[in-house]
Amino acid sequence: xxxxxYNSLSKQVExxxxxxxxxxxxxxxxxxxxxxxxxxNYRTYTLGDIVNRVFAFNGFKVKYIMNYTDVxxxxxxxxxxxxxxxxxxxxxxxxxxxxxxxxxxxxINDFLKGYDKLNLIRPFKFTRATEYIxxxxxxxxxxxxQGFTYRTSDGIYFDTSKFEEYGALSGLSAESIKEGARVxxxxxxxxxxxxxxxxxxxxxxxxxxxxxxxxGIGFPGWHLxxxxxxxxxxxxxxxxxxxxxxxxxxxxxNEIAQSECATGKKFVNYWMHGAFLQVDGGRMGKSLGNAFxxxxxxxxxxxxxxxxxxxxxxxxxSTLNFTWEALLGAQNSLHKLYDILAGYKESEDASPSxxxxxxxxxxxxxxxxxxxxxxxxxxxxxSNLPEPVKIATAIKMDAVLGLNLENYxxxxxxxxxxxxxxxxxxYRKAGIxxxxxxxxxxxxxxxxxxxxxxxGKFKLKRKM
Length: 464
Ligand code: AMP
Ligand code: ZN
Hints:
Blueprint: E1 4-7, E2 12-15, E3 23-28, H1 39-57, E4 61-68, H2 88-96, H3 100-117, E5 125-128, H4 133-145, E6 149-151, E7 155-158, H5 174-180, E8 195-200, E9 218-220, H6 222-234, E10 238-244, H7 248-263, E11 268-274, E12 277-279, H8 294-299, H9 304-312, E13 320-322, H10 324-343, H11 354-365, H12 370-382, H13 387-401, H14 415-429, H15 433-445, E14 448-452, E15 458-462
Parallel strand pairs: 3-4, 3-10, 4-5, 10-11, 12-13
Antiparallel strand pairs: 1-2, 6-7, 7-8, 8-9, 14-15
The chain binds adenosine monophosphate (AMP) and zinc ion (ZN).
Adenosine monophosphate is lined by residues 29, 31-32, 40-41, 43-44, 69, 243-244, 246-247, 274, 276-277, 284.
């Protein structure tokens, strides 16, 4: 059964046709590693994870690349112009008193912790922009050779008027971009849509990260890195390119322009864009104090997996509104799912329900309709199928959903954990709170959580 994808380039749902049989080459624009990654960003990475898992579920081998932007992403991008402002990495280094490399390492490490907590399967490779400078310079050289570039006082620019198909993805003419921009246009640019391929280092300050080039010391423009890394790792034409919807208009349009002009080949067959996560019905932003992280979620007592379930509850092309109540709702549903599975009896020889699996595959292959796939999972559990069949079906579906369902199936609490919980209950009865707390920690170290009921009884659950 064909996998159907809404292609942002054709603005239509299309049957997916891979270039190589049974193989998918896929690239996703990852985080700019100058600050903590937000739950908005993670919505987009969860989309990448779902697409990756759905292809694997259909028997494809997926070569999946995600990048770290650790240079060249300027603050002007927020106002619609990626060629002006400070380099976010350099600014963070200045502010935090660490080198740009240390800043990147620190936030990459933090990003990966959240990534793993959300049970996102790691890509084939995470690529760092600063490790592909050579490829980026080669790309600028290729464009220069073919007459697509020009020089200004601050860098080497791509001349978008030389690429006839410019605007095919964004749907925007140069004029409408000019009107939409909230920053003063660079007067040296020949066209408002032109963008920097290579920027020169300032003459008065030394940057943390800069490289020699045929045009002068400097650093690569933000858009350039994704083209260079995608083509180096996956080839000149790739199957799928993903990112958040904010990248469609400019960043991805520019990736197409520079890649296709350099190689003369189509860069990407299917463009996918994930809708944004909002908070309380509005924009999420650092300045608004609502750019929550996975750690913020945990500090409020929620599981990271509840956030994953929350993401799965909406189709990727619909805006999703984050509220704490909605997260609580997602967590309750997830815990209910775990509780139901924990109550079932397993049997080794049960096989999944073909009928439910087929409905599930229809949903996920129909432009990644995960909310519908979740509904099929719930229908399976509510059906009158034998319990072992329900378990086998749910576990099979979880290869796509990634909710760790297997961990909760018919588990028994080990006797030593039950004994510890009883000991803790006795300490509590006697009012010896510090010892009761110590035993609770021992229980947690063994991977369980003890919940107290009002009548002095307790319930043990596996930690998520
Ligand atoms: P950045 O770190 O700003 O380069 O963004 C990294 C990725 O997260 C990109 O693919 C963005 O499109 C995506 N992104 C940023 N903000 C949000 C949001 N609020 N909701 C969903 N995706 C987002
Ligand atoms: Zn990119």
